[in-house]
Amino acid sequence: MAEDSGGLVFHPMDQFIVKPLFGDGPVAWYTPTNVTLWMFLTVAVILLLLVVGTRGRAVVPNRTQSIAELAYGFIYKMVEDVSGKEGVKYFPYIMTLFMFIVVANFLGLLPMSFTTTSHIAVTAILAMAVFLTVTILGFVLNGVGFLNIFWIRQAPLVLRPILALIEIISYFVRPVSHSIRLAGNMMAGHAVIKVFAAFAAVLAISPFAIVAITAIYALEVLVSFIQAYVFAILTCVYLKDALHPHH
Amino acid sequence: MEVEAATLIANGIKYAGAGLACTGMGGAAIGVGHVVGNYLSGALRNPSAAAGQTATMFIGIAFAEALGIFSFLVALLLMFAV
After folding, report:
1. Is B61 on the interface with A (CB under 8 A)?
2. Does A160 reside within a domain?
3. Is B78 within 8 Å of B17 (Cβ atoms)?
4. In Å, how far are B3, B20, B66, B75 from A227, measured between CA atoms?
5. Is residue A5 domain-resident?
6. CB neighbours of A27 closer than 8 A, spacing ≥ 6?
7. Which pLDDT belongs to residue B49?
8. In Å, how far is B75's CA from the nearest CA of chain A?
9. Quick check: is A4 in a domain?
10. Considering Cα of B24, then B30, then B35, then B36, what sign does the dihedral take?
């Protein structure tokens, strides 16, 4: 379709290919790839924002410090509201997760950039880390009592084994849905932008396509933030289960 | 010859399956709309309680949306992995 109108020829999924930064060799675990580069940039932006940005410690904050303070206050309140007072101890972990995901998502929105969070390999590591943390924490804090989250005492005795089975399945699906939700949203949104970019090469519908790209881009900015928020808030919910396994 | 024909048919069915998997997104759309709609009708009855429940709404949206994302994943797997 695109060849006929002389536009760019690309596949909407091409943007997610992992390439080595230098040369065209095979990708081994130690090869610096574009994923490495954009993850490094993510960490660099977080450092600039949270460490260098707040160095002044002004009473009347400047713009960078305000953003850092807003992010801190927002996540702190969320952890306190969802996980309760005991959950505040684990605030640094959730803040780290949120900042990494939100900055990676926003950097991915730059043209020609690479979205690290669109890869299930990246989000699966984050989700598995949350899953293992929460499970180990639950057993360390409550001992065998942690298994109470599968045994719902409010339900009639006949129903409890069936509910326990459902609860166990839903517990082990958690890391899957947690990681795929983030990766799927990022991948789908960016692919949609690329599909409309391909339509822009067709003269008849190009004005519509360009307006659509603008609108979808705005939606993607919103989705990038909401998905990071959802990832963090679900971590808080799982954390609350580990802290208080009795329903 | 027959193997070739069978491969072609299997390929076609693969694409049809990917398209069918996308109908699952409609279910996710209904779910998300239901969550937000009910939140909004509750919030308009008692606006003072609305702010405290925004986080709960987002959790509900996330759970409803995850199943739609699974159907998207099935479509992707059919297109690129199978």
Report:
1. yes
2. yes
3. yes
4. 45, 26, 11, 21
5. no
6. A18, A19, A20, A33
7. 86
8. 11
9. no
10. positive
Instruction: Let me know if residue A77 belongs to a domain.
Output: yes
Residue A104's domain comprises 14-243
SS (H, E, C) B59-75: HHHHHHHHHHHHHHHHH
What DSSP character marks residue A55?
T
Q: Is A180 within 8 Å of B66 when comparing Cβ atoms?
A: yes
Residue from A112, A94, A93, A99 nearest A37 by CA: A112
Condensed to tens digits (0 to 9), the pLDDT of residues A161-178 reads 899 999 899 899 889 888
> Which residues in A have their CB inside 8 Å of a CB on B?
13, 78, 81-82, 177, 180-181, 184-185, 187-188, 226, 229-230, 233-234, 237
Domains in chain B: ranges and CATH: 2-81 (1.20.20.10)
3-class DSSP state for residue A247? coil
Q: Could you read off the pLDDT of A175-226 as tens digits, one per residue?
A: 988 898 899 888 888 888 888 888 887 778 888 888 988 988 998 998 899 9
How many structural domains comprise chain A? 1
**Residue A245 structure tokens:** 């396994």
Name residues whose C-beta falls within 8 Å of residue B58's C-beta, 6 or more positions apart in sequence: A226, A229, A230, A233
